[in-house]
Design a protein that fits this description.
Layout lengths: L2 H5 L3 H24 L6 H26 L4
Helix pairs in contact: 2-3
């Protein structure tokens, strides 16, 4: 998922996507522990997407609190 796509989402969409990715990450970790994960890169990609979304959420909250755009 690209950062430009994430920045275009509303806070509600970001929260929904974050919960979906966290659920997906749980499934990937479970599959990895069971030895059934076919591609371990999926864990890294999901973790990075979660971090990107959390960063954009934090930026939006900080922007709304300060009222300025950096």
């Amino acid at each position: 998922m690209k950062i430009s796509d994430i920045r275009e989402m509303s806070l509600e969409e970001l929260a929904l996507k974050l919960s979906e990715l966290q659920e997906l990450m749980f499934r990937y970790r479970f599959q990895s522990a069971m030895g059934q994960l076919d591609n371990p890169i999926k864990i890294r990609n999901a973790r990075r997407d979660i971090a990107r979304i959390q960063t954009v959420i934090t930026e939006n909250k900080n922007k709304s609190v300060t009222g300025t755009v950096s």
